[in-house]
C-alpha cells in the first residue's frame, strides 16, 4: 500500500516511524515532513493544509491511504473533499469528516455535545460578540479563576485563565471584538475552573467501536516546575501511573463510550483518532477538550509502546471492523524530552546546526522542527526541535536515558526541561 502522511512535527515523525515498520506499507510519502520523516520515507514539498494539492497528488501518484496528522485540514474538510469525489472515493482516509472534526474545531459544539450525552466536563456558557454584557454578568456568578476560551481553532493558544476579574473582562472585550484570536475569538466559552492533574487518552475508532491506545501525560509549560508560558508541549510520559484500571474504567464508561454513542446519534462520519484531553478531579475524569488527531509530544511516547501493526489497525478503521481488532501494548514506560530553540515559545532563531545525534544510545530521536539545509547540515527549523525518546523498564530508567541523550545533542540556544516526569516518581 502507498501511504501519504500529512504533517511536519514530532507527532508525524513518530507516526512515520511506526507506519514504515508495517509490512503492509510498500511506500511512505510525507507532506511536507521534516528531516526525521525523510529517514522513514520520501518528503514532498506540499503543505498539509492544501486540500486540492493533496487530492491531486493522491490521484497522480496512486496513493491508497492518507493519514492526517494535524487538525487544520480535518476541520477544513479534507475527509469529505476526498471521499465525496468519485475519482478518489475509494481512497482510505484516516481522520474524521468535517462534521466530526467540529469536536475540536468548535468549543461550543463540543460543549453542547458533552452536555447532550452527559459527558463530565466543566460547567459553561457560550457568548457571541453581541453578548458582552451577558458574558460579564455570567463572570459575576463564578468563583475565580476564570477560564475563557476562543470558540475556534487557535493553535492551542485560545485559552485564557485569570483570577483577576478586570483582566477577564478586558480579555472578553478583546476576544468578542475580534481583536484577539480573530474570528476564532468572536464566540467565547466561559467555563468553571477544574483543579486536578491532566492526562491525554487516545482511541482509534471507526465511529462505532474503538481500540484504546496508550495514555500519556504532557508537560505544557516552558519552565521547570510547570511555570512560565504555555508551549505546544515540552515532553511526555506513557503510561500515566494514576490512570490505573479503576480510573480507566471510569474513562471508558463515562467518557469514551458516551462519546461514541453521541458520534452515532449525530451521524458524524468518524474514521480516525480521538484525543481526550482529561483532568483527574479527585479520582474522577472530566473532559477539558476533544482533539480529532493525536497529541504532540504524546505521540512520541505512545507509538513506541504500540506493538501491533498500526497500518493493520487503520485498515480495520476503514472497513469498520474495529470490533475485531486487537491491540498489543508494551508494559514498558516511554519518556520523551523535547529540545527546543532558545526563546521558544516566543521569538527564536532557526537554522542552527544540530550535532551529536550519532552519540545517542538506547533511545530514539524524533525530529520536530528540523531540516537539511543547502549545505547538507541538519539544522533547527522550528521552536520545538526534537525529542529524545526512550522505552525503559521504569520511569526512572527511561528518564535517565532520555535526559542523558538530551545532554549529548547540541545546537546553539538548546533548552529542555530537566524535570519531565519527576512529578510521577
Ligand atoms: P484547551 O485548549 O481547552 O485544552 O485548554 C488549554 C489548557 O487550559 C488545558 O490543557 C488546561 O491546562 C487549561 N484548562 C482549560 N480548561 C480548563 C478548566 N475548565 N479548568 C482548568 N484548566 C483548564
Ligand atoms: N500535546 C497537546 C496537543 O497535542 O494538543
Structure characteristics:
D-amino Acid Aminotransferase, Chain A, domain 1; alpha+beta; 22 strands; binds adenosine monophosphate; Dna Ligase, domain 1; 28% helix; five-stranded parallel sheet; 4 domains; binds glycine; globular; 425 residues; five-stranded antiparallel sheet; Rossmann fold; 12 helices
Reconstruct the topology from this structure:
Elements: E1 2-7, H1 10-20, E2 27-32, E3 42-43, H2 51-60, E4 65-68, H3 72-75, H4 78-83, E5 92-94, H5 98-105, H6 107-116, E6 124-127, H7 132-140, E7 146-150, E8 159-162, H8 165-176, E9 188-191, E10 197-205, E11 210-212, E12 217-218, E13 221-223, E14 227-230, E15 235-238, H9 245-265, E16 272-281, E17 284-291, H10 298-302, H11 310-319, E18 333-340, E19 364-367, E20 370-372, E21 378-380, E22 384-392, H12 395-408
Parallel strand pairs: 1-2, 1-4, 2-3, 4-5
Antiparallel strand pairs: 6-9, 7-8, 7-9, 10-11, 10-16, 12-15, 13-14, 15-18, 16-17, 18-22, 19-22, 20-21
Helix pairs in contact: 5-6, 7-8
Bound molecules: adenosine monophosphate and glycine (GLY).
What would your notes on this structure say?
This protein is an alpha+beta fold and 425 residues long. Helix content is 28%, strand content 25%. The chain has four domains: 2-95, 3-Layer(aba) Sandwich (Rossmann fold), CATH 3.40.50; 123-191, 2-Layer Sandwich (Dna Ligase, domain 1); 197-324, 2-Layer Sandwich (D-amino Acid Aminotransferase, Chain A, domain 1), CATH 3.30.470.20; 333-424, Glycinamide Ribonucleotide Synthetase, Chain A, domain 4. It has helices at residues 10-20, 51-60, 72-75, 78-83, 98-105, 107-116, 132-140, 165-176, 245-265, 298-302, 310-319, 395-408; strands at residues 2-7, 27-32, 42-43, 65-68, 92-94, 124-127, 146-150, 159-162, 188-191, 197-205, 210-212, 217-218, 221-223, 227-230, 235-238, 272-281, 284-291, 333-340, 364-367, 370-372, 378-380, 384-392. It has a five-stranded parallel beta sheet. A five-stranded antiparallel beta sheet has the order 12-15-18-22-19. Helix 7 (132-140) runs antiparallel to helix 8 (165-176). It is globular. The termini are far apart. The site of glycine has 7 residues, from loops.
Amino acid at each position: 500500500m502507498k501511504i501519504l502522511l500529512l504533517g511536519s512535527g514530532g507527532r508525524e515523525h513518530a507516526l512515520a516511524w511506526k507506519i514504515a515498520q508495517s509490512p503492509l506499507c510498500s511506500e511512505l510519502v510525507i507532506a511536507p515532513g521534516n528531516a526525521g520523516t525523510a529517514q522513514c520515507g520520501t518528503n514532498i514539498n506540499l503543505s498539509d493544509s492544501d486540500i486540492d494539492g493533496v487530492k491531486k497528488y493522491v490521484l497522480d501518484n496512486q496513493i491508497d491511504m492518507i493519514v492526517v496528522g494535524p487538525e487544520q485540514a480535518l476541520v477544513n474538510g479534507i475527509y469529505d473533499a476526498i471521499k465525496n469525489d468519485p475519482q478518489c472515493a475509494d481512497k482510505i482516509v484516516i481522520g474524521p469528516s468535517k462534521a466530526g472534526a467540529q469536536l475540536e474545531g468548535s468549543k461550543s459544539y463540543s460543549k453542547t455535545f458533552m452536555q447532550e450525552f452527559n459527558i463530565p466536563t466543566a460547567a459553561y456558557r457560550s457568548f457571541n460578540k453581541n453578548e458582552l454584557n451577558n458574558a460579564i454578568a455570567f463572570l459575576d456568578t463564578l468563583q475565580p479563576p476564570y477560564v475563557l476560551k476562543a470558540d475556534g481553532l487557535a493553535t492551542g493558544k485560545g485559552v485564557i485563565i485569570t483570577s483577576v476579574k478586570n483582566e477577564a473582562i478586558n480579555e472578553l472585550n478583546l476576544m468578542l471584538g475580534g481583536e484577539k484570536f480573530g474570528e476564532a475569538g468572536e464566540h467565547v466559552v466561559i467555563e468553571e475552573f477544574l483543579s486536578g492533574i491532566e492526562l491525554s487518552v487516545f482511541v482509534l475508532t471507526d465511529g462505532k467501536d474503538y481500540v484504546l491506545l496508550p495514555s500519556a501525560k504532557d508537560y505544557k509549560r516552558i519552565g521547570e516546575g510547570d511555570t512560565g508560558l504555555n508551549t505546544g508541549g515540552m515532553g511526555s510520559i506513557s503510561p500515566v501511573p494514576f490512570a490505573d484500571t479503576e480510573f480507566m474504567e471510569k474513562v471508558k464508561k463515562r467518557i469514551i463510550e458516551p462519546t461514541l454513542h453521541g458520534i452515532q446519534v449525530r451521524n458524524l462520519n468518524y474514521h480516525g483518532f480521538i484525543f481526550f484531553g482529561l483532568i483527574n478531579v479527585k479520582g474522577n475524569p472530566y473532559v477539558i477538550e476533544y482533539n480529532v488527531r493525536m497529541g504532540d509530544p504524546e505521540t512520541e511516547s505512545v507509538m513506541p509502546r504500540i506493538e501491533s501493526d498500526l497500518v493493520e489497525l487503520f485498515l480495520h478503521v476503514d472497513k469498520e471492523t474495529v470490533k475485531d481488532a486487537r491491540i498489543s501494548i508494551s508494559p514498558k514506560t516511554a519518556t520523551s524530552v523535547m529540545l527546543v530553540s532558545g526563546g521558544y515559545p516566543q521569538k527564536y532563531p532557526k537554522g542552527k546546526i544540530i550535532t551529536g545525534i550519532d552519540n545517542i544510545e538506547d533511545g530514539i530521536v524524533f525530529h520536530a522542527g528540523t531540516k537539511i539545509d543547502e549545505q547538507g547540515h541538519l539544522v533547527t527549523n522550528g521552536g520545538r526541535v526534537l525529542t529524545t525518546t526512550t522505552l525503559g523498564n521504569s520511569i526512572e530508567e527511561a528518564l535517565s536515558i532520555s535526559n542523558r541523550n538530551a545532554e549529548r545533542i547540541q545546537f546553539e540556544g538548546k533548552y529542555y526541561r530537566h524535570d519531565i516526569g519527576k512529578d510521577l516518581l
